[in-house]
Specification:
Blueprint lengths: L6 E6 L6 H10 L8 E6 L4 E4 L5 E4 L11 E4 L12 H13 L2 E4 L3 H7 L7 E2 L6 H7 L4 E2 L5 E3 L3 E4 L2 H16 L1 H11 L26 H8 L8 H8 L3 H12 L3 H19 L4 H7 L5 H12 L3 H9 L3
Parallel strand pairs: 1-2, 1-5, 5-6, 6-10, 7-8
Antiparallel strand pairs: 3-4, 9-10
Helix pairs in contact: 1-5, 5-6, 8-9, 10-12, 10-13, 11-12
Length: 318
Amino acid sequence: MPPSRPRQVAVIVLEGAKPLDVGIPAQVFTTRASMPYEVRVCGAAPGLVTGGDGLSYHVAHGLEALDWADIVFVPGYRFPDRDDPPRSVVDALVAAHTRGARLAAISTGAFALAATGLLDGRRATTHWHYTRVFAARHPRVKVDENVLFVDQGSVLTSAGAASGIDLCLHILRRDLGVAASHHAARRLVAAPYRSGGQAQYVPRSVPEPLGERFAATREWALRRLDEPLSLDTLARHAAVSPRTFSRRFAEDTGYTPMQWVMRARIDMARELLERSERSVERIANDVGLGTGANLRSHFQRILGTTPSEYRRTFAGGE
């Protein structure tokens, strides 16, 4: 049943706010006959807020808008890894949550939620480009880099901007049911429902190197992913001991050598799924994973989806 009064939605615009992240909840929940929501866009104070990507926002409301909100959206913003939001914003978010409001972050807005401490001990996600720095900056948060959004009840987080649409539709589905969610999706010309557990599909799961100690060994390994690649084999190519190789490799990439090799193999499998019609079994053999079952297992663990589903998404079916 629709609520007796419109649900109150606040969208808080922080310095450097990303335009698409701001616009998604503002458009999805904008007041109309079919949508029992009322939206107010606010900032740390009324007035001009400098946004990201060359845009600024003139907001009519300050943090008092959070006093009445049922849902507070925190859009992503630039340079979230540099500084926390103003103390007044953090306190207002905590107060809104204590009062019973749901807090929902889009993309790097998760950094603002994490600054409140409300994500400590909980699962959360953010844009794939920032997951590692997010985990380092907020070690008490259980960061999941391979999902579109995470619903922890009173706090919700989503990945990049497009997944903010998925998060908003998920909230509609939870609040008003499937019909309302589908109606909104049709209006947005968006997929009616993508599970939060679906992978973000980052461009590369192998991290960019942070150093060049073993660049030649990495390049050598990438050309031989179909061959056995043990720690001893890699260390021998780099002309150091396995122990030294492991330690320095992790310093370069943030992964152990074997984790890096596995992700490189999954990346190659993704490319073959997108660009070829080879069977899953053949691809598994071509990338050094042996069997289709092995490929499916690692694909699910790393990307949260299956090879077949990935191929349907990016190559139009098998």
